[in-house]
Design brief:
Blueprint: H1 24-64, H2 68-104, H3 116-127, H4 152-161, H5 166-171
Helix pairs in contact: 2-3
Amino acid sequence: MSDPTPAPIEPKPIDPTPQGELSPEAKGLLRDLQAQRESNKALKDQLDAIQTANDEAETARLAENEDFKGLLEIANAKVAEYEPEVLESRAYNEAKKTALLEKLGEDADSFKTLDVPALEKVVEKLTKVNLPAEPGQPGATPSGNFGGYETKLELAEAVAKGVPGAREAYDRL
């Protein structure tokens, strides 16, 4: 004697509504959820303000009582809280700088001292493809466009070194 297996349950069809339109019930629920979300955000903002005020009051109390050990513990807790974010940011910046320097190839040594935003600008300018003014000479650049420098790379290096007049010539490109 074996137990008969129950018949599979078929899903009930849902009353479809045209896409983009919500039923009145769904609109009401959505409105309620949005109101609840706004209320939660306001309460969270209030809680954050209260916690900040409490932290400031505690710090002031410890300073008034000259409890330097307690102040040090608070400062160390803040450092420990933000340390992972600082390390993550540093790792991201190093990875980005390495990737940008790789795009420069053999000229990367000249730009190692630049920070990431300046390096991004240099890479953008150096890797930018200049279309020739005359269609018959692809890749040719009219002489004199580099402010007295032989190549765009030499001009970029002069800008990085802070040579007077190089920045203006570079900006004219």
